[in-house]
UniProtKB/TrEMBL annotation:
This is WDR64 protein. The lineage of its organism: Eukaryota, Metazoa, Chordata, Craniata, Vertebrata. It comes from the Eukaryota. The keyword Repeat applies. Keywords: Repeat. The keyword Repeat applies.
Amino acid sequence: ALESIDFKNALEQFQDLVEKMIIQKTKESSGLCTDGDDIDYDKFYSTTQTLFGPAVKDQNIQAFFRRIMSNPDERPEWPEIFGCFTGERDGMSSPSKENMVLLISEKQQITHSVVKRKDIIKGIVKVPLLHLTITASQRGVLTVFNKQKILFSYSFYFHQDTAWITGCDYLPNLKYVVAVTESTIILWDYKSKESKSDGFVIKPMKNCLLCVCTVTMADNLAKDTILMGDYKGYVYLLTITSDDFIMKQSKTGKVSQFKVLDSESFDIPKRKLHDDWVGKVKYFPALKRFGSCSTDSINSFVLDDIKRLEDQLPVKEFSVPKGVNAFTYCGKAKVIVTGG
């Protein structure tokens, strides 16, 4: 419905309409006379319908108008005219499965508890090709879901040296779940036939690791590469092959069913890109670039080739006051969005 109109222009006109209503209501509340061109509900309804057509519903127009009239100082956001974000606040029913402007899926609740009290989820990763979702809790619970239920779960609660998980991802070639803690890297073979708690732990890591992501490349089915960020501003590059699981086992034994791999036996290039904690790392296959962000106000966001982690050539970066906490890339619009 909205493809036939200039949505940006319509939105600007709608926001002008809301501003006039707020000014009108403010004058009325102060006992001042208006200019006579008052905007009542009928005029607001007809104007909104003209601007957006069937994309807006009667109940959402009513709720939006009521909110402005009842409290003009706390103006509603424009998505609410399309039924977004209203929820139960206005006594209306929840939004439909699909909205004409913003696509919203209904919530789907997993009834099984995946974390204990006083624990929190630190990472959620979707694996679209396998229709899986992976979560990692701060205190060490790794869980693999499909759309209906929990498929695999393992708890590191009782392994003190592998507790406090800070991030997770999926290794598509090796078919492992990877998670990082303050001092270790966990590789969980969640589909192991021998035991659901089979896998490897790479340790020790000298700096506290804060985030991890997979570098998606289809050039070799026997290895995976990951990026990690730490609390000193370093970004690490680690490539793991199936042979590493056999050749680099430590003599120190096991952590439960998890075999220990000595971190000193791996070549792990790293480079200091930020002067504060690395909040997030992400690889974008479409750009063939990785991104990393930090609360550092000078080196806030870096976007460059992963080869820059192995040399000292300048990196593409920009500064944001108080830094960047999150970022993502939209391939359709060809833009990167950051949040500070």
